[in-house]
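Q: What residues go here?
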């Protein structure tokens, strides 16, 4: 390890060091050949320079056919001097002082790379290593787990070592890596088992269920800063104005206010969800009871009608007296009236009950009073007014000579250009404000769009009309039965 050499003078790779390493690697019967002055170093394919107190990589360009290079346990601080080693397949730089991954662009054939125990804080500059199969970068200073995602571009990567980095202590670290690098076979010297893949699927299913639960409670994407980020993600003009001190203070405070409102709505929505579920459960229980009674009564009415008019439908046209036909038509009308009356009663009962259920927020209940539209619009309007006051005051100061020089020194050129034209800056801020209000209204509209709708009544009426029309047609055109032989 490099810390073992604190009392040793660092070295730079030179011809003598390389020659000794070659001699040590060569068999005894080839030792004389290796020591000859004109020995062909291009024939060397492997070189070990471990524990040599090397500070800088240099003078390796003659060894252009190297396939394996071992530089572990040295003082190396920078990856360099490897450009000519294009045939390198195996490279060990573990236990050094390297801080940045670089100097590997030409090593397109590299299959095994070890940077274990260095000082690297970011995974980068590895896109050209498409043949890489084994990569060890454990025990470094990697803190951002998302940086691992860039390794997806290495299609042949099968073995990865990350253990010992700060981000390994994060929850679901292993599942995150496996999820984003599905081709891995080994992670941290452990086989990526089927159980890990199943656990990953369970995590994803849990996230999906949580989202579905939030959608059912009408609070999806209200937790955290997701809504705020959506509103202000493309607001470039206001972002430029952040260089004005007062604007910067305003923009720093505003997100926390907005996010707090969103989170309050999120928590309130989850609390109200159970109450709504209980009301909905009661509604559907009564709904099913009403439908059962309706079906039974409808069957009874239709059965009575068929019993009374059965002979009319079995006789020929000439056998039906005009008075009986008139009576039959009257019975059909009464049947229609009875079924429609029954359906109206059912419909009225079903239409009253949804009004008692706070399925979606509206202005007549407490959810509406604290609704997203109301509070967020208030915050947005307040922030807009303060921003306009600051901008106008700043522009007035710029017009005064005693303030102009100090302000201009502190403001970037693009901000100064914006402040030169009052109409331009005011229009830009107003436009951004209107867009955000539209997004707030759209979010509120999305929350309201799924109010309970009962289309059953319309469908039932169509069935009644169709049924009675069919009876009337059969009455006008009775079926003539053939005589029995």
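A:
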């Amino acid at each position: 390890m490099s810390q073992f050499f604190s009392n040793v003078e660092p070295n730079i790779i030179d011809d003598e060091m390389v020659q000794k390493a070659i001699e040590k690697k060569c068999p005894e019967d080839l030792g004389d050949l290796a020591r000859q002055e004109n020995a062909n170093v291009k024939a060397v394919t492997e070189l070990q320079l471990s524990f040599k107190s090397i500070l800088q990589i240099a003078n390796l360009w003659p060894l252009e056919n190297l396939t394996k290079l071992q530089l572990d346990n040295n003082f190396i601080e920078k990856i360099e001097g490897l450009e000519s080693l294009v045939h390198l397949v195996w490279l060990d730089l573990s236990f050094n002082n390297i801080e940045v991954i670089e100097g590997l662009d030409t090593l397109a054939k590299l299959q095994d790379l070890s940077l274990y125990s260095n000082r690297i804080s970011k995974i980068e500059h590895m896109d050209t290593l498409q043949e890489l199969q084994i990569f060890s970068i454990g025990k470094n200073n990697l803190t951002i787990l998302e940086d691992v995602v860039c390794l997806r571009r290495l299609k042949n990567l099968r073995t990865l070592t990350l253990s010992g980095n700060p981000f390994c202590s994060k929850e679901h670290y292993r599942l995150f890596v496996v999820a984003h690098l599905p081709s891995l076979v080994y992670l941290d010297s452990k086989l990526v088992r089927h159980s890990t893949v199943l656990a990953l699927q369970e995590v994803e299913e849990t996230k999906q269920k949580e989202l579905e639960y939030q959608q059912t409670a009408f609070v999806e994407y209200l937790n955290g800063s997701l809504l705020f980020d959506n509103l202000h993600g493309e607001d470039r003009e206001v972002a430029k104005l952040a260089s004005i001190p007062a604007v910067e203070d305003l923009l720093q405070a505003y997100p926390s206010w907005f996010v707090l409102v969103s989170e309050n709505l999120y928590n309130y929505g989850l609390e109200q969800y159970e109450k709504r579920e209980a009301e909905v459960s009661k509604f559907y229980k009564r709904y099913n009871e009403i439908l059962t009674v309706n079906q039974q009564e409808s069957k009874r009415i239709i059965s009575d009608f068929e019993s009374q008019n059965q002979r009319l439908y079995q006789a020929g046209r000439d056998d039906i007296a005009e008075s009986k036909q008139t009576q039959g038509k009257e019975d059909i009308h009464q049947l229609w009236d009875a079924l429609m009356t029954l359906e109206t009663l059912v419909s009225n009962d079903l239409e009253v009950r949804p009004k008692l259920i706070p399925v979606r927020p509206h202005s007549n209940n407490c959810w509406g009073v604290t609704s997203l539209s109301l509070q967020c619009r208030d915050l947005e309007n307040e922030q807009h007014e303060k921003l306009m006051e600051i901008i106008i005051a700043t522009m007035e100061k710029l017009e005064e000579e005693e303030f102009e020089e100090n302000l201009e020194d502190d403001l970037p050129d693009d901000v100064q250009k914006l402040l030169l034209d009052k109409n331009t800056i005011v229009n830009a801020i107003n436009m951004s404000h209107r867009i955000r209000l539209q997004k707030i209204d759209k979010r509120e509209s999305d929350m309201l769009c799924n109010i309970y709708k009962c289309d059953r009544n319309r469908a039932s009426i169509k069935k009644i009309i169709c049924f009675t029309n069919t009876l009337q047609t059969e009455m006008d055109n009775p079926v003539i039965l053939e005589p029995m032989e």
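A: Context that may help when evaluating the design: Confidence is low (pLDDT under 50) at residues 1-5, 354-370, 450-455, 480-485. The first helix runs from residue 15 to 25.
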